[in-house]
Specification:
The chain is mostly beta strands. The chain is built from 9 helices and 53 strands. The strands form 15 sheets. The chain has a 7-stranded antiparallel sheet with strand order 20-19-18-29-28-27-26, with helices on one face. The termini are far apart.
C-alpha cells in the first residue's frame, strides 16, 4: 500500500462460527442460528450471508456492530418460508465488511458447515451373540412449551422404500422402538441396544441384512423443526445366521403323489384324503394337501392345497368341482401370506417365516398339481408333517404327529391325516385359529416399564425374496377379497363335500406285477422315460445341478405309465425336474455368476417353459409362444373349444342390498388371460324362450371384455339397463334385470349359459330354478329397475310424478305439486313471449339501419 493512501476495503474479520440457541415465540421455543465473530478494530459495517445445503438463503442489511440486534441470526420462520420444514440440513454463514453501507466490501469469510439433525456414529452393526449399540447425538437443541421440561422421542423404524436387486435373502424390519432424549441432555450421546433373538442357529456362516432408519415421533409436533423428520440416515443390522442346513432343501408331493422329505428321502403316499404336508411346531403355519383318485383310479393325485399363517388361509381347491383359488380367511392385520402368480398355472406363496410354497397346476382332463415346500432356517428341527423333520439326517425324517419315530408307509401317513375340526379347506373350522405373531417378522422392542423402549431384538426371520430378477412381480400378487375371505362374510356355500375316497389306499407294489396296461411293460416304459427326459434341453442344462435327481425322475415317470397306461403324465415329471432345478439355481448365488456367455440361472430360465409348451408352441426365453388357436402359459387351451361355465356368483341371485351388483364372478374353466376373453349377456325374456340368433350372434346381446382372475374364474361388468323416462299413467311395476350369461376365450366359441338376476330384496323376491326365473314384487312399492319407491314416493327420474297404488294397479301419476308447477310454467311463458318478440324486432331494426 502506498504510504498515506486511505484503504477502500476494511481488513478481513476473523472466521465466524455458527451457534444454535432457542428463542421464545409465543408459548413455544424455536431454534435460532447465530453467526458469531469478533468485532473488528476498525469502524465498519457488517453484512451477514446465510447458506443452507450450499444454496444462498438470505442476507442482512449492512449494520454497525452496536446495531446488530438480530441481524446476525437465522430463524425458523425464514427457513420455513424458504422450504426447509424440518432439520436434516447443512448451514453456514459468511461475513463481509465495508466502511460505508454502499462502499466496496471485503471478500466474505465463511464459517464451518454445521449439520443440524442427528449424527449417527455407527451406521452398520453386526449382531451375533452379544448385544451391540447404535450411538447417536443431536447437533442442535429443541424447545418445549412454556419452557417446561420435555423430551424428544427418537424412533428406530423400518426402511421400506429401498429395493435390493441382489439374490440374497433379507430380513423384514419394523417396530415402534424409541429413545426419549431429555431437554437438558440434548447434546449427550444416546444409543439403542440391539440384541439377538434366540433362534435355532448356532453358527455364523451367512448374514441377513435389516435396513432401518432413525426418525422423530409424530408426537413431537410442538418441537418446530424437529417434528416429523423421518430420515436421519440408514442403519444396517447384519444378523449372522447359519443357512447351511437349508441349502438345496425342498420337500415335494408331485403327481400321484411321489414324495420327498426336506432331508431328501423319497417315498410313495398312495392315500386319499386331507393331510398335513408341512407345519412348524413353534409357528402358526401349516400346509395341507388333499389327494383324490386319478390315473384310471389306480393312484392318488394332489388336487387341493391350503396354506395357513395365523388367521390367513389361501387355498387352491380343485378336488370337488369348486375351482376358485383364493383366500378363504384374511383376519390378520396385514397380508401375512404373500401370494403371487408366476403364470396362470404356477403359484408361489411366501410364508412370513421365510418358507415358500409352490403349486404348479397340471391339466390331464382334470386339474391336479405338483406342490413344493422350500424351508427357512426356522424349520431346522421344527418342521413336521409329510415333509418330515429337517435335521440334516434322513434317519429321523418320519416323525408322526404324536412325536414318535416311524418309517414311510401307512402308520406315518395316517398320523398326518387331518381331522375334520382342523380342516383348512372348510371355512366353518377357522374359529380355533390364532393370529400371526408379528414380532417374529421384525426387529422389535420387548415390553419395558417406561416406553418408548430403546432395547431392540432382532433375529434372522427372513423375507425369502429369492432372486429379485425372476420372482413374480408385485403386480401379479393375489390379494384377499374381504367379501369372500372373512369369517364374517356371507357364506354362500361350503368349499367342498367330503370325499368318498378319503380313506382309501392304493398299493404301490403293482408296478412290479403283470398288470401293465395298453401294451406297456416296465422295460419299455423305462426306455421311453429315459429317452424322452434326457432329450430335453432343460435336462441337459439341469442334470449337473446338485438337487436334481434324474434317476428318481425316471423312476417316477415309469410309475405314472403303469398307473395310467399312457404317457399323459410325462409333463408332471418334466415339471418336477424343472422346478427343482429352478429353485436351486435361484437360491444358490454360485449359479448367478456369468461364465463367458451367461449365468446358469439365466440359461435355466430361458429354456424352462411350462410343460414344454405341450408341443403346441415354441419356448422362447422361458415363455411359450403358442401356435394358432392355442393359448395359456403352456399352450394347452384350444381356443376353438368353448370353456365351461359351472357357476355364477351369488348362486345367480344378486341382491343390491348386499352387493353393488355392478360386476359378477363366473366360475368354470379353463379360461385364458387374453383381450379376446369375453362375457356375453342377453336379456331373459318373460316366457323363457331364447333370444333370436343370427349369424352374428344373439339379437340384443351385450358383449363385454372379461377380467381374468385365474384359470377358473373371470369377472365381468354387468350391462346397465337403460330405464325409459316414465310418462304420466304408465305402469310403475318394473321387473328386475335378468340375463343369460356365457363366456368365451376367443369371442367366438361361447360356453353354455347361466342365469343371473339383479334384484332388490326390499320390494322384490326372486327365485332361480334351472332356467326358470320367478320374481314377486311387493304390493306396497312401485319399482323402477332395482329401485323401490313406496306409495306417494317421487319418481326417481325427476319431475313431479309419484307412485300411485290402487289395489293391484301401480302407475306414475301427478303429485300435489304437478298442476301448480305446470300452471306456473305456462303463465311465465305467456308473460315473457311478447317481451321476447318486441326485443327481437327492435334488435333486427337496429341492425338494418
Amino acid at each position: 500500500m502506498i504510504a498515506g493512501k486511505v484503504r477502500d476495503i476494511p481488513r478481513r474479520t476473523n472466521k465466524p462460527i455458527v451457534e444454535t440457541a432457542l428463542t421464545k415465540v409465543g408459548r413455544n421455543s424455536e431454534l435460532i442460528f447465530r453467526c458469531i465473530f469478533d468485532k473488528s478494530v476498525e469502524d465498519v459495517f457488517y453484512k451477514i450471508y446465510w447458506y443452507v445445503d450450499n444454496k444462498y438463503l438470505s442476507s442482512s442489511k449492512p449494520h454497525r456492530w452496536e446495531d446488530r440486534g438480530g441481524s446476525n441470526d437465522l430463524d425458523e420462520t425464514t427457513l420455513k418460508e424458504k422450504g426447509f420444514k424440518t432439520v436434516g440440513f447443512n448451514v453456514y454463514c459468511g461475513v463481509r465488511a465495508s466502511f460505508q453501507t454502499e462502499s466496496a466490501a471485503s471478500l466474505p469469510i465463511f464459517s464451518q458447515v454445521k449439520y443440524v439433525g442427528i449424527k449417527l456414529y455407527n451406521t452398520t452393526v453386526y449382531l451375533d451373540k452379544e448385544p451391540v449399540e447404535i450411538f447417536f447425538q443431536l447437533t442442535a437443541p429443541f424447545g418445549c412449551i412454556d419452557d417446561k421440561d420435555c423430551s424428544l422421542e427418537i424412533q428406530l423404524l423400518e426402511r421400506d422404500d429401498i429395493q435390493d436387486n441382489n439374490c440374497e435373502r433379507k430380513n423384514l424390519v419394523a417396530s415402534y422402538c424409541g429413545v426419549s432424549v431429555e431437554k437438558s441432555k440434548w447434546d449427550k450421546v444416546h444409543s439403542f441396544v440391539i440384541k439377538r433373538r434366540t433362534t435355532v442357529n448356532k453358527n455364523t456362516k451367512t448374514t441377513s441384512t435389516s435396513i432401518m432408519k432413525l426418525t422423530t415421533s409424530q408426537r413431537n409436533w410442538n418441537h418446530g423443526l424437529w417434528a416429523n423428520y423421518n430420515d436421519f440416515g440408514n442403519v444396517l443390522i447384519e444378523t449372522r445366521e447359519d443357512t447351511s442346513m437349508i441349502q438345496g432343501k425342498q420337500c415335494h408331493a408331485v403327481c400321484d403323489p411321489h414324495m420327498k422329505t426336506l432331508d431328501g428321502r423319497y417315498y410313495e403316499h398312495q392315500y386319499g384324503g386331507i393331510f398335513t404336508l408341512y407345519t412348524n411346531v413353534e409357528l402358526q403355519v401349516e400346509v395341507q394337501v388333499e389327494t383324490a383318485l386319478c390315473n384310471s383310479n389306480r393312484a392318488f393325485c394332489v388336487c387341493g392345497l391350503a396354506v395357513r399363517a395365523g388367521r390367513s388361509v389361501f387355498a387352491i381347491p380343485l378336488c370337488h368341482g369348486f375351482k376358485r383359488p383364493g383366500f378363504l380367511l384374511c383376519d390378520d392385520v396385514d397380508d401375512v401370506l404373500d401370494v403371487r402368480r408366476r403364470t396362470d398355472q404356477q403359484y408361489e406363496i411366501l410364508i412370513p417365516s421365510g418358507a415358500i410354497v409352490k403349486a404348479n397346476l397340471l391339466n390331464y382332463g382334470g386339474y391336479f398339481m405338483n406342490v413344493y415346500v422350500v424351508p427357512s432356517v426356522h424349520d431346522v428341527d421344527k418342521s413336521r408333517g409329510l415333509c418330515g423333520k429337517l435335521s440334516n439326517t434322513r434317519r429321523d425324517d418320519f416323525v408322526k404327529r404324536d412325536g414318535t419315530q416311524s418309517g414311510p408307509g401307512r402308520d406315518f401317513s395316517a398320523s398326518w391325516r387331518v381331522q375334520d375340526q382342523n380342516n383348512l379347506f372348510d371355512r366353518n373350522k377357522f374359529d380355533r385359529l390364532e393370529r400371526w405373531d408379528r414380532s417374529w417378522n421384525y426387529c422389535n422392542c420387548p415390553k419395558c416399564l417406561k416406553p418408548p423402549c430403546g432395547e431392540v431384538e432382532c433375529g434372522p426371520m427372513q423375507e425369502a425374496n429369492a432372486c429379485f430378477k425372476y420372482r413374480p412381480p408385485a403386480t401379479d400378487s393375489v390379494k384377499p377379497d374381504p367379501r369372500r375371505c372373512s369369517i364374517h362374510a356371507r357364506k354362500r356355500r361350503s368349499v367342498f363335500e367330503p370325499s368318498t375316497t378319503s380313506h382309501q389306499m392304493m398299493s404301490i407294489n403293482k408296478r412290479d406285477a403283470d398288470d401293465w396296461l395298453n401294451g406297456w411293460t416296465k422295460e419299455n416304459a423305462t426306455v421311453f422315460c429315459e429317452k424322452q427326459l434326457r432329450s430335453l434341453s432343460s435336462t441337459q442344462t439341469c442334470q449337473n445341478i446338485p438337487t436334481v435327481n434324474i434317476s428318481q425322475n425316471i423312476e417316477d415317470c415309469v410309475f405314472d405309465i403303469w398307473a395310467s397306461g399312457s404317457t399323459a403324465f410325462f409333463d408332471a415329471t418334466t415339471d418336477n425336474m424343472q422346478t427343482t432345478c429352478m429353485q436351486e439355481v435361484t437360491m444358490n448365488s454360485t449359479f448367478h455368476r456369468e461364465t463367458g456367455e451367461e449365468s446358469i440361472l439365466d440359461k435355466v430360465f430361458k429354456i424352462a417353459c411350462p410343460s414344454g409348451c405341450r408341443g403346441k408352441g415354441d419356448c422362447v426365453d422361458g415363455q411359450c409362444k403358442c401356435h394358432a388357436n392355442y393359448s395359456g402359459s403352456d399352450c394347452s387351451v384350444d381356443l376353438n373349444s368353448p370353456p365351461q361355465l359351472t357357476e355364477v356368483d351369488f348362486d345367480g341371485l344378486c341382491d343390491v342390498n348386499e352387493d353393488p351388483c355392478t360386476a359378477i364372478s363366473l366360475v368354470g374353466g379353463t379360461f385364458v388371460n387374453s383381450a379376446s376373453t369375453a362375457c356375453r349377456f342377453r336379456d331373459v325374456v318373460e316366457n323363457g324362450s331364447p333370444t333370436m340368433e343370427t349369424s352374428d350372434g344373439p339379437v340384443d346381446a351385450s358383449v363385454v371384455t372379461a377380467s381374468f382372475e385365474n384359470l377358473f374364474e373371470l369377472s365381468c361388468r354387468i350391462p346397465v339397463r337403460r330405464t325409459k323416462r316414465s310418462a304420466l299413467g304408465v305402469s310403475a311395476e318394473d321387473k328386475p334385470s335378468a340375463y343369460h350369461v356365457s363366456v368365451s376365450n376367443n369371442g367366438v366359441a361361447y360356453s353354455e349359459e347361466r342365469i343371473v338376476v339383479i334384484y332388490n330384496s326390499t320390494c322384490q323376491t326372486c327365485t332361480l330354478s334351472g332356467t326358470t326365473v320367478s320374481c314377486v314384487i311387493s304390493d306396497e312399492y312401485c319399482t323402477l329397475g332395482t329401485q323401490c319407491i313406496p306409495k306417494g314416493g317421487m319418481y326417481p327420474g325427476g319431475g313431479c310424478l309419484v307412485c300411485d297404488i290402487n289395489g293391484k294397479e301401480k302407475s306414475w301419476q301427478e303429485g300435489p305439486t304437478c298442476s301448480s308447477c305446470t300452471r306456473t310454467s305456462v303463465t311465465w311463458i305467456l308473460t315473457m313471449l311478447p317481451v321476447y318478440i318486441i326485443y327481437y324486432i327492435f334488435c333486427n331494426h337496429i341492425i338494418l339501419y
